[in-house]
Amino acid sequence: MATTFAIRLATAGLLACAFLLGACAQVPKESVELSTTVGRDVAAAHESHRKLAQTLFARIKRDVNRFVDDVYAPYQIQFVLDRQRQRQAAGNPANLFSVLEAAGQRPRDAQAQKDAIDVMQAIVEAVRADVEEYRGMRLAPVLKQEEEVTAAIDRVYEQIKRGNATVTAHLASVVKVHEAQDELLRKANLEGLREKVGVSLSNASERVAEFVGKAKAVEGSVDATTAKVNKLTVELDKLLKGD
Q1: Most exposed: 21, 47, 71, 130, by fewest CB within 10 Å?
Q2: 167: nearest Cα among 153, 150, 184
Q3: Alpha-carbon distances, residue 178 vs 12, 32, 161, 190 (angstroms)
Q4: Interatomic CA distance for residues 43 and 48, integer angstroms
Q5: What value does the mean pLDDT take over residues 98-116?
Q6: Structural domain of residue 225, as residue ranges?
Q7: pLDDT of residue 41
Q8: How far apart are CA 48 and CA 23, in angstroms?
Q9: Per the structure, how many domains does the chain have?
Q10: Could you tell me the CA-to-CA distances from 121 to 56, 126, 151 in Å, in that order?
């Protein structure tokens, strides 16, 4: 089921279509030519609306990736290094710092060098896997909404196209064409379309961008930033879901 954000996004941008349909009063009265002109205008508006949605979703995904790379990834690295220091302080030899120290003290010891490389590689891979899993979880609702919105856009425009092709063949004047198309929009639950603008869609993208900009200020110790990152994650999820 599409979220509130997806539903709002599905209708944002249709204003252009309404304006194009409203311009029918300037085209010839001949039904065939009128139908062709309107159909071409609707098709152009459809493509423009699709591109608008894709552009803004791309921006949202870019901002999510920026949050992961600039906020969560550095935090996760700090978290892992802190745990390695705790192991070292507890006398556990299986930690990054002890292994690196041993390798540094025995530069000609091939096994000590190999152990250091193996430990570092294991830690890097673990951090990378955690960061990418976090990224996937944050992007999942955005990708789902993008799919739903694109489908909704296509569905609405196809309904308008089919309705227009049916009714224009029976209309004798430009005024009647205009009225019939307004009725089609009302039946599609899009009444008041000319008064709706793409503000909600732009605002959603702006909110995510603003959130990411503020989130980059997260600094401090692991214990201090853990709570902050968890809180930011909850807030980000709410924004992405349109709550």
Answers
A1: 47
A2: 184
A3: 21, 15, 14, 15
A4: 9
A5: 86
A6: 4-241
A7: 76
A8: 17
A9: 1
A10: 37, 8, 43
